[in-house]
Amino acid sequence: MKIHSLLPACIALASTFAVVHAQAHEPGAHVHGVAELRIVIDGPQLQISLESPLDNLLGFEHVPRTDVQRTTVRQMARTLRDTASVFTPTAAAHCHVTTVRLASSAALGESIETTPADGDGHADLDADFSWTCDAPQALTGVDIDLMRHFPGLRRLKVQVAAPSGQRALDLLPGRRSVAW
Q1: How far is the C-alpha of 100 from the C-alpha of 93, rounded, in Å?
Q2: What is the Cα–Cα distance from 142 to 84, expressed in whole angstroms?
Q3: For position 35, what pLDDT does the model report?
């Protein structure tokens, strides 16, 4: 499929993501146990964005105050940077990680970029993961293992923009595959 034929779908999805992102930052939208995951496939590129309250991943939402909390932050960062432990694209697509970016309004250290706080007292983690796939036509899905690593995460609200179209679904514990 040509890139220009995906342009209208990508523009529509970008608009949808902008609305969802704006709604997620409205007061009251920060829900513990729930995170948002956006998956975009554009030619050989696979991009996954995660937005989650820190409480889902760490059990707290502030700058780490104790050695135990600092260790928890290090483990979270290590787990998310080990993309193969949390995301498994279709093996036949031969995807390799090109970028992992972690950011939070809480100053967490561990090479996690600090972003401006939104002032509501709740801190999120924003993570972006990118892959380049050698056989993108074989990319038909991804298995997501976040809930196994982070038991505070009980629901993933997933949005997908793929050559086959757009869709939304929820992943709950025990369900980890997203196909398109």
Answers
A1: 19
A2: 11
A3: 98
